[in-house]
Amino acid sequence: MVDSHQNRLIGNMDQQTNFPQPNPYSVVHDAPKPGSIKVFGILNIIFGSLGLVCGGFGFLALVVMQSSSEMGDAIQSAISTQYSEGYMTFIMFAAVIGLLLSIFLLTCGIGLLKEKNWGRTCSLGYAILGIIHTTVNAIGPVIFAQAGPVAIGAGFGAIIGTAIGVIYPICILIFLTRPNVVEALKE
Question: Which of 86, 80, 94 is nearest to 146 (CA)?
């Protein structure tokens, strides 16, 4: 009785279709994307938006102050005692570049959240431009400062400002050039 039951089980196993085993080396695995892609996408959008809002209001304040004759004269006389001529032009130019970089960073963040490779490569471009912009913004006041305590303060500000300002761009360069990130965003 037991033998007939075993024969029936073995017979049923023979009738089952055997599926071929997949070759583990030819199967495409959908590995999860690295979390740094989403993290930097969100951070790019946050920092780009903050740069637009804060930089936009700062630039608007500069324009309004310059357009008011009384306020413009007061600002110009205060700046001329501490900085060389051309410093206000430098500030305005740096503010416009900062606004453009903020728009660029915001766009990069959207690209990263959509998991597009152009978001990664543009973020790397932003990182390089951000380091250059931060360095120039730190050196500018030192160059335009007149000798004395203002120049010393500008020097310390340049060192501290550059050290803080390049942290995020360096993080972008480190995390978005990792092989797993590059591989995950290949199109």
Answer: 80
Cα distances (angstroms) measured from residue 86 to each of 55, 56, 82, 140: 20, 21, 12, 10
In 3D space, the residue among 144, 9, 138, 137 whose CA is nearest the CA of residue 82 turns out to be 144
- CA-CA distance, 165 to 101, in Å (whole number)? 13
Query: Which segments of 16-148 does DSSP mark as H helices, in order?
Result: 35-67, 69-82, 87-113, 117-144
In tens, the pLDDT along 114-151 reads 999 999 999 999 999 999 999 999 888 888 887 778 77
* Residue 55 placed within a domain: yes
Nearest to 34 by CA among 167, 168, 172, 175: 175
3-state secondary structure string, 96-118? HHHHHHHHHHHHHHHHHHCCCHH
* 25, part of any domain: no
CB 75 within 8 A of CB 62: no
pTM, whole model, 2 decimals?
A: 0.76
Query: How many CA atoms lie within 13 Å of 112's alpha carbon, on the beta-carbon side?
Result: 30
Enclosing domain of residue 118? 35-184
Number of structural domains (the chain) is 1
